[in-house]
Amino acid sequence: MKEDFLYFIWKFQYFKSIQLRTDQNENLEIISTGLQNHDAGPDFLNAHLRINGIEWHGNIEIHVKASDWKKHQHSQNRAYDNVVLHVVWENDFNVFRKDHSLIPTLSIKNCVDPKIQEGYASFRLNDDVIACGQQLENVSRLHKLAMLDRVFLERIERKAGKILQQLQLSNRDWEECTYRTLAEYFGFKVNNDAFQRLSSIVPIRLLKLHAYQPIQVEAFLFGSAGFLSDEANSPYMKKLHREYKFLSHKYAIKEKEMSLHEWKFLRLRPANFPTIRIAQLSSIIINIPHLCSAFLHISSLESFIRFMQHPTSEYWHSHYHFGKTSQKPISAFIGKSALQSLLVNVVVPLQFAYGTDRNESRYKEKAIQLLEAIPPENNKFTKLWKGYSIKNNSSLDSQGLIELYTQYCQKNRCLECSLGVQVLNSKNKH
What average pLDDT does this structure show over 48-75? Predict the structure, then answer.
């Protein structure tokens, strides 16, 4: 038995058609279950009950076992002083208020409709990747749209929140914040942490200060990333070594320098090697004077692709690593799929975060419209939903589906998902 099932039972009042009585043998009428609390404190707030004819207004705490009250040390937490009913699956412990009066307890083990228990058990024991996938066709289109909209907003708000945290770490410098966010996603998941660390070593102001000398920007980044420790064996590498030696001494970077083991190459295609990505990031920084302002004005995938068409330096047209020549020519530009990923994961959340910070809804609306206009994503998460009767017509849908799977399906939060609730409801009706 899990608490989330008990929350579900309480919230939707899935009890047998019987007169509820507390374990103290008092008549119980539930006028309002209260609002579910997803933060610290009692599980449901501002409930309205009638116990033996006396009306109570207060909070509800729910546990599998009543003794969990003691286990969770609620008696020492004043947030639980206003609990008017303790709802449990099994009552093995009496809970008292500070004035030593007993808090009424409702044991629901024998009050729950068996059909609901069977439906819940089928979720818990289901080995399918999407537990309710086979029953989704029984869920109305309206409920599907509502849930996708909800999880999409949860996702974009979470991403925007991360950017706003970065903004504070960047002393509210939007340019630095944009640079660090962009740099992190240049790792394309595998090297995100390494790129994040690299951007913390070399701030954007130093790179912009030397942007008139492209070789110095590359020296800053490749040197700080730890790639210039080997002997130089080409004119390009010799220039990088010379420039980095000067810059690292001038700005005291040497002691912060990364180690090569922090970068991952294994099972990556050469186009995704961190060396190539650093060369591409260098090119973007050299050619785009104001990253934040530029990204806030992006309004379509096509304009973003055109805007980001800045070639890497010539060395990286034929090398995927220092000293290693490629047998095939390497594209001088960032690929379309990579740019679409950057647009979805950097530009859109940045616009939404900026609108949130400045309280300007037009930026938030622009971010949503931009996602609606981008083709749907095709990755391991969106592929999971193929075959189920749920739409994926744009990147906005894709982001919702990714959030739904990673934050709900994967974490067995079926009873917090309106799709899971609808499936259980339909089973109960049958």
Answer: 93
